[in-house]
Protein backbone atom coordinates (compact mmCIF):
# COMPACT_ATOMS: atom_id res chain seq x y z
CA UNK A 1 0.00 0.00 0.00
CA UNK A 2 1.08 3.57 -0.59
CA UNK A 3 1.61 5.85 2.40
CA UNK A 4 -1.55 7.78 3.17
CA UNK A 5 -0.06 11.12 2.15
CA UNK A 6 -1.81 12.62 -0.91
CA UNK A 7 -1.28 15.43 -3.40
CA UNK A 8 -3.64 17.64 -1.39
CA UNK A 9 -1.93 17.16 1.95
CA UNK A 10 -0.18 20.14 3.44
CA UNK A 11 3.48 19.64 4.28
CA UNK A 12 5.05 20.48 7.60
CA UNK A 13 8.25 21.50 5.79
CA UNK A 14 9.21 25.13 5.84
CA UNK A 15 9.20 27.08 2.56
CA UNK A 16 12.29 26.76 0.42
CA UNK A 17 14.66 29.67 0.09
CA UNK A 18 15.61 31.03 -3.35
CA UNK A 19 16.93 28.09 -5.38
CA UNK A 20 20.63 27.96 -6.08
CA UNK A 21 21.03 26.08 -9.35
CA UNK A 22 24.81 26.18 -8.91
CA UNK A 23 24.58 23.87 -5.89
CA UNK A 24 26.84 20.82 -5.83
CA UNK A 25 25.35 17.88 -3.94
CA UNK A 26 27.22 14.99 -2.34
CA UNK A 27 24.98 13.14 0.10
CA UNK A 28 25.24 9.60 1.45
CA UNK A 29 22.70 8.84 4.15
CA UNK A 30 24.33 5.59 5.27
CA UNK A 31 26.82 7.77 7.15
CA UNK A 32 23.96 9.40 9.13
CA UNK A 33 21.41 8.11 11.62
CA UNK A 34 17.91 7.51 10.25
CA UNK A 35 16.33 10.80 11.40
CA UNK A 36 19.26 12.90 10.25
CA UNK A 37 19.42 11.06 6.92
CA UNK A 38 15.74 11.62 6.19
CA UNK A 39 15.98 15.25 7.23
CA UNK A 40 18.94 15.85 4.93
CA UNK A 41 17.13 14.12 2.06
CA UNK A 42 14.04 16.34 2.47
CA UNK A 43 16.21 19.42 2.80
CA UNK A 44 18.10 18.64 -0.41
CA UNK A 45 14.85 18.15 -2.32
CA UNK A 46 13.55 21.50 -1.13
CA UNK A 47 16.83 23.31 -1.70
CA UNK A 48 17.36 22.13 -5.28
CA UNK A 49 13.82 21.82 -6.59
CA UNK A 50 10.89 23.08 -4.51
CA UNK A 51 9.05 22.39 -1.27
CA UNK A 52 8.05 18.73 -1.12
CA UNK A 53 7.39 16.11 1.52
CA UNK A 54 8.68 12.55 1.63
CA UNK A 55 7.24 9.42 3.23
CA UNK A 56 9.04 6.12 3.72
CA UNK A 57 7.52 2.71 4.53
CA UNK A 58 6.93 2.38 8.25
CA UNK A 59 8.88 -0.86 8.37
CA UNK A 60 12.04 0.86 7.12
CA UNK A 61 14.46 1.21 10.04
CA UNK A 62 17.06 3.25 8.16
CA UNK A 63 17.63 5.10 4.92
CA UNK A 64 20.15 3.86 2.39
CA UNK A 65 20.46 6.53 -0.29
CA UNK A 66 23.01 8.47 -2.33
CA UNK A 67 22.72 11.76 -4.19
CA UNK A 68 25.26 13.46 -6.38
CA UNK A 69 24.37 16.62 -8.31
CA UNK A 70 25.95 19.58 -10.10
CA UNK A 71 25.07 22.43 -12.44
CA UNK A 72 25.18 21.94 -16.20
CA UNK A 73 24.74 25.30 -17.90
CA UNK A 74 21.16 26.39 -17.23
CA UNK A 75 20.31 22.92 -15.93
CA UNK A 76 20.96 21.10 -12.69
CA UNK A 77 21.61 17.37 -13.13
CA UNK A 78 21.66 14.74 -10.38
CA UNK A 79 22.25 11.03 -10.03
CA UNK A 80 20.12 9.49 -7.29
CA UNK A 81 19.77 6.06 -5.68
CA UNK A 82 17.29 5.67 -2.85
CA UNK A 83 15.18 3.23 -0.86
CA UNK A 84 11.43 3.04 -1.44
CA UNK A 85 9.73 6.40 -0.89
CA UNK A 86 6.81 8.60 -1.84
CA UNK A 87 7.41 12.25 -2.69
CA UNK A 88 4.48 14.70 -2.75
CA UNK A 89 4.17 18.25 -3.99
CA UNK A 90 0.77 19.52 -2.89
CA UNK A 91 -1.25 22.67 -3.78
CA UNK A 92 -0.38 24.14 -0.37
CA UNK A 93 3.32 23.71 -1.10
CA UNK A 94 2.94 25.35 -4.49
CA UNK A 95 1.23 28.34 -2.90
CA UNK A 96 3.96 28.75 -0.29
CA UNK A 97 6.89 27.99 -2.63
CA UNK A 98 5.95 28.67 -6.24
CA UNK A 99 8.09 27.44 -9.12
CA UNK A 100 7.65 27.46 -12.89
CA UNK A 101 10.46 24.96 -13.48
CA UNK A 102 10.29 21.36 -14.67
CA UNK A 103 11.93 18.12 -13.59
CA UNK A 104 12.87 15.28 -15.91
CA UNK A 105 13.00 12.02 -13.95
CA UNK A 106 14.87 9.32 -15.89
CA UNK A 107 14.79 5.88 -14.24
CA UNK A 108 18.12 4.02 -14.30
CA UNK A 109 17.11 1.17 -11.98
CA UNK A 110 13.96 -0.26 -10.43
CA UNK A 111 10.43 0.94 -11.12
CA UNK A 112 8.78 4.28 -10.37
CA UNK A 113 5.22 5.59 -10.62
CA UNK A 114 4.37 9.26 -11.09
CA UNK A 115 0.98 11.01 -11.02
CA UNK A 116 0.29 14.46 -12.46
CA UNK A 117 -2.30 16.20 -14.64
CA UNK A 118 -4.79 13.39 -14.01
CA UNK A 119 -2.43 10.81 -15.52
CA UNK A 120 -0.40 7.98 -13.98
CA UNK A 121 2.84 6.81 -15.61
CA UNK A 122 4.77 3.63 -14.87
CA UNK A 123 8.49 4.17 -15.43
CA UNK A 124 11.00 1.39 -15.95
CA UNK A 125 14.70 1.50 -16.66
CA UNK A 126 15.45 3.89 -19.54
CA UNK A 127 12.10 5.70 -19.49
CA UNK A 128 11.50 9.17 -18.16
CA UNK A 129 8.70 11.53 -17.15
CA UNK A 130 8.33 15.29 -17.17
CA UNK A 131 7.01 16.86 -13.95
CA UNK A 132 5.77 20.45 -13.69
CA UNK A 133 6.80 22.01 -10.35
CA UNK A 134 3.90 24.44 -10.74
CA UNK A 135 1.32 21.64 -10.44
CA UNK A 136 0.70 18.98 -7.76
CA UNK A 137 2.27 15.57 -8.28
CA UNK A 138 3.10 12.30 -6.54
CA UNK A 139 6.29 10.32 -7.15
CA UNK A 140 6.29 6.78 -5.74
CA UNK A 141 8.59 3.77 -5.71
CA UNK A 142 7.89 0.54 -3.84
CA UNK A 143 11.53 -0.56 -3.78
CA UNK A 144 15.05 0.78 -4.19
CA UNK A 145 15.39 2.76 -7.42
CA UNK A 146 17.94 4.78 -9.35
CA UNK A 147 17.33 7.85 -11.45
CA UNK A 148 18.83 10.87 -13.16
CA UNK A 149 16.93 14.06 -12.34
CA UNK A 150 17.31 17.20 -14.43
CA UNK A 151 15.89 20.54 -13.37
CA UNK A 152 15.01 22.75 -16.35
CA UNK A 153 14.09 26.45 -16.02
CA UNK A 154 10.45 27.08 -16.88
CA UNK A 155 11.42 29.92 -19.21
CA UNK A 156 13.60 27.55 -21.27
CA UNK A 157 10.72 25.09 -21.68
CA UNK A 158 8.15 27.81 -22.40
CA UNK A 159 10.29 29.13 -25.24
CA UNK A 160 10.36 25.71 -26.92
CA UNK A 161 7.23 23.86 -25.85
CA UNK A 162 3.73 25.19 -26.66
CA UNK A 163 1.42 25.28 -23.67
CA UNK A 164 -0.84 22.52 -25.00
CA UNK A 165 2.13 20.19 -25.32
CA UNK A 166 3.53 20.93 -21.86
CA UNK A 167 0.16 20.03 -20.36
CA UNK A 168 -0.06 16.82 -22.39
CA UNK A 169 3.54 15.86 -21.58
CA UNK A 170 3.35 15.82 -17.79
CA UNK A 171 2.46 12.63 -15.93
CA UNK A 172 3.25 10.30 -18.83
CA UNK A 173 6.08 7.94 -19.73
CA UNK A 174 8.58 8.53 -22.54
CA UNK A 175 10.65 5.59 -23.74
CA UNK A 176 12.49 3.43 -23.18
CA UNK A 177 12.57 1.19 -26.23
CA UNK A 178 13.53 3.11 -29.36
CA UNK A 179 13.23 6.42 -31.11
CA UNK A 180 13.93 9.95 -29.94
CA UNK A 181 13.08 9.30 -26.28
CA UNK A 182 15.72 6.53 -26.13
CA UNK A 183 18.34 8.93 -27.53
CA UNK A 184 17.39 11.60 -24.98
CA UNK A 185 17.54 9.04 -22.18
CA UNK A 186 21.05 7.97 -23.14
CA UNK A 187 22.16 11.59 -23.49
CA UNK A 188 20.93 12.55 -20.01
CA UNK A 189 22.54 9.46 -18.49
CA UNK A 190 25.88 10.33 -20.11
CA UNK A 191 25.68 13.97 -19.09
CA UNK A 192 25.02 12.95 -15.48
CA UNK A 193 28.01 10.60 -15.48
CA UNK A 194 30.53 12.74 -17.37
CA UNK A 195 31.68 16.13 -16.07
CA UNK A 196 32.26 18.71 -18.81
CA UNK A 197 33.91 22.12 -18.83
CA UNK A 198 31.87 25.22 -18.06
CA UNK A 199 32.27 26.36 -21.64
CA UNK A 200 30.90 23.11 -23.05
CA UNK A 201 28.19 22.79 -20.38
CA UNK A 202 26.22 25.76 -21.70
CA UNK A 203 26.05 24.35 -25.25
CA UNK A 204 25.33 20.83 -24.00
CA UNK A 205 22.48 22.03 -21.78
CA UNK A 206 20.85 23.99 -24.61
CA UNK A 207 21.15 20.98 -26.91
CA UNK A 208 19.60 18.73 -24.25
CA UNK A 209 16.61 21.08 -23.85
CA UNK A 210 16.13 21.29 -27.63
CA UNK A 211 16.25 17.50 -27.99
CA UNK A 212 13.91 16.94 -25.06
CA UNK A 213 11.37 19.47 -26.38
CA UNK A 214 11.46 17.95 -29.86
CA UNK A 215 10.92 14.48 -28.39
CA UNK A 216 7.94 15.63 -26.31
CA UNK A 217 6.31 17.40 -29.26
CA UNK A 218 6.83 14.40 -31.52
CA UNK A 219 5.49 11.94 -28.94
CA UNK A 220 2.52 14.06 -27.86
CA UNK A 221 1.46 15.24 -31.33
CA UNK A 222 -1.18 12.54 -31.76
CA UNK A 223 -2.64 13.32 -28.35
CA UNK A 224 -2.65 17.05 -29.14
CA UNK A 225 -4.46 16.41 -32.42
CA UNK A 226 -6.94 14.12 -30.68
CA UNK A 227 -7.57 16.77 -28.01
CA UNK A 228 -8.17 19.36 -30.74
CA UNK A 229 -10.72 17.12 -32.48
CA UNK A 230 -12.28 16.36 -29.10
CA UNK A 231 -12.74 20.10 -28.43
CA UNK A 232 -14.22 20.63 -31.90
CA UNK A 233 -16.71 17.79 -31.39
CA UNK A 234 -17.79 19.16 -28.02
CA UNK A 235 -18.23 22.61 -29.55
CA UNK A 236 -20.46 21.11 -32.28
CA UNK A 237 -22.60 19.34 -29.68
CA UNK A 238 -22.95 22.57 -27.68
CA UNK A 239 -23.95 24.46 -30.82
CA UNK A 240 -26.67 21.92 -31.70
CA UNK A 241 -28.03 22.03 -28.15
CA UNK A 242 -27.97 25.83 -28.17
CA UNK A 243 -29.92 25.98 -31.43
CA UNK A 244 -32.62 23.62 -30.12
CA UNK A 245 -33.08 24.59 -26.48
CA UNK A 246 -36.66 25.69 -27.19
CA UNK A 247 -37.58 22.06 -27.97
CA UNK A 248 -38.85 20.42 -24.80
CA UNK A 249 -38.77 17.06 -26.59
CA UNK A 250 -35.05 17.33 -27.41
CA UNK A 251 -33.20 14.11 -26.57
CA UNK A 252 -29.56 13.14 -26.67
CA UNK A 253 -30.36 10.92 -29.66
CA UNK A 254 -31.66 14.00 -31.47
CA UNK A 255 -28.48 15.90 -30.58
CA UNK A 256 -26.34 13.05 -31.85
CA UNK A 257 -28.24 12.86 -35.14
CA UNK A 258 -28.06 16.62 -35.74
CA UNK A 259 -24.35 16.61 -34.82
CA UNK A 260 -23.58 13.83 -37.28
CA UNK A 261 -22.30 11.53 -34.53
CA UNK A 262 -23.36 8.27 -32.98
CA UNK A 263 -25.25 8.38 -29.70
CA UNK A 264 -22.47 6.42 -28.00
CA UNK A 265 -19.83 8.91 -29.16
CA UNK A 266 -21.86 11.87 -27.91
CA UNK A 267 -22.36 10.17 -24.53
CA UNK A 268 -18.61 9.53 -24.22
CA UNK A 269 -17.71 13.09 -25.21
CA UNK A 270 -20.14 14.67 -22.76
CA UNK A 271 -18.96 12.43 -19.93
CA UNK A 272 -15.38 13.70 -20.40
CA UNK A 273 -16.62 17.06 -19.07
CA UNK A 274 -17.41 15.39 -15.75
CA UNK A 275 -21.18 15.81 -16.15
CA UNK A 276 -24.00 13.59 -17.30
CA UNK A 277 -25.74 14.35 -20.63
CA UNK A 278 -28.95 15.40 -18.84
CA UNK A 279 -26.99 17.72 -16.53
CA UNK A 280 -25.26 19.24 -19.55
CA UNK A 281 -28.62 19.94 -21.19
CA UNK A 282 -30.08 21.47 -18.04
CA UNK A 283 -27.03 23.68 -17.59
CA UNK A 284 -27.35 24.92 -21.17
CA UNK A 285 -31.06 25.71 -20.62
CA UNK A 286 -30.35 27.63 -17.43
CA UNK A 287 -27.49 29.60 -19.01
CA UNK A 288 -29.79 30.65 -21.87
CA UNK A 289 -32.48 31.56 -19.34
CA UNK A 290 -30.03 33.77 -17.44
CA UNK A 291 -29.25 35.64 -20.64
CA UNK A 292 -32.95 36.17 -21.40
CA UNK A 293 -33.68 37.28 -17.83
CA UNK A 294 -30.98 39.94 -18.03
CA UNK A 295 -31.57 41.17 -21.58
CA UNK A 296 -35.34 40.97 -22.14
CA UNK A 297 -38.59 41.84 -20.41
CA UNK A 298 -40.10 38.44 -21.16
CA UNK A 299 -41.98 36.86 -18.27
CA UNK A 300 -40.42 34.00 -16.35
CA UNK A 301 -43.12 31.69 -17.75
CA UNK A 302 -42.32 32.69 -21.34
CA UNK A 303 -38.58 32.25 -20.79
CA UNK A 304 -39.28 28.86 -19.26
CA UNK A 305 -41.01 27.79 -22.48
CA UNK A 306 -38.30 29.26 -24.71
CA UNK A 307 -35.57 27.24 -23.01
CA UNK A 308 -37.48 23.97 -23.25
CA UNK A 309 -39.37 23.55 -19.95
CA UNK A 310 -42.99 22.40 -20.11
CA UNK A 311 -43.65 23.47 -16.49
CA UNK A 312 -42.59 26.82 -15.05
CA UNK A 313 -42.42 25.26 -11.57
CA UNK A 314 -39.96 22.67 -12.83
CA UNK A 315 -37.97 25.45 -14.48
CA UNK A 316 -37.87 27.36 -11.19
CA UNK A 317 -36.61 24.33 -9.26
CA UNK A 318 -33.88 23.54 -11.79
CA UNK A 319 -32.83 27.19 -12.04
CA UNK A 320 -32.61 27.53 -8.26
CA UNK A 321 -30.60 24.33 -7.97
CA UNK A 322 -28.03 25.37 -10.58
CA UNK A 323 -27.92 29.13 -10.02
CA UNK A 324 -28.50 29.18 -6.27
CA UNK A 325 -31.28 31.76 -6.63
CA UNK A 326 -34.79 31.93 -8.11
CA UNK A 327 -35.29 33.35 -11.62
CA UNK A 328 -37.15 36.35 -10.21
CA UNK A 329 -34.43 37.22 -7.71
CA UNK A 330 -31.76 36.68 -10.38
CA UNK A 331 -33.43 39.33 -12.53
CA UNK A 332 -34.45 41.77 -9.75
CA UNK A 333 -31.06 43.46 -9.11
CA UNK A 334 -30.87 44.37 -12.79
CA UNK A 335 -34.17 46.29 -12.85
CA UNK A 336 -34.07 50.04 -12.58
CA UNK A 337 -34.30 51.31 -9.03
CA UNK A 338 -36.94 53.93 -8.13
CA UNK A 339 -35.57 57.49 -8.07
CA UNK A 340 -34.02 58.44 -4.77
CA UNK A 341 -36.08 60.69 -2.49
CA UNK A 342 -34.60 64.19 -2.06
CA UNK A 343 -33.02 64.71 1.35
CA UNK A 344 -35.19 66.40 3.92
CA UNK A 345 -34.31 69.91 4.93
CA UNK A 346 -34.82 71.37 8.34
CA UNK A 347 -38.13 73.22 8.54
Automatic annotation (TrEMBL):
Residues 9-19 have a biased composition (Basic and acidic residues). SMART domains: HTH_ARAC (SM00342). Residues 235-333 form the HTH araC/xylS-type domain. Residues 1-20 are annotated as: Disordered. GO terms for molecular function: DNA-binding transcription factor activity; sequence-specific DNA binding. InterPro entries: AraC-bd_2 (IPR035418), AraC_XylS_family_regulators (IPR050204), Homeodomain-like_sf (IPR009057), HTH_AraC (IPR018060), HTH_AraC-typ_CS (IPR018062), Tscrpt_reg_AraC-type_HTH (IPR020449). Keywords: DNA-binding, Transcription, Transcription regulation. This is Putative AraC family transcriptional regulator.
Amino acid sequence: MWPTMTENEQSHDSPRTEPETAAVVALRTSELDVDEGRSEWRSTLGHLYAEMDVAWPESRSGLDAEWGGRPLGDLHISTIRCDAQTVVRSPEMIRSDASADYLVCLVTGGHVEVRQSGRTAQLERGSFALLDLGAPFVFHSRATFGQVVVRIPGSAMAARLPGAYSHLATGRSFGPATGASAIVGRLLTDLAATPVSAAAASSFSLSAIEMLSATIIDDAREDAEAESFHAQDLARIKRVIGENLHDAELTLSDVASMSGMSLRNVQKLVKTTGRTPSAWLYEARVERAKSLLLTTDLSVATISEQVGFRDVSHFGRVFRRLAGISPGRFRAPNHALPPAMPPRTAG
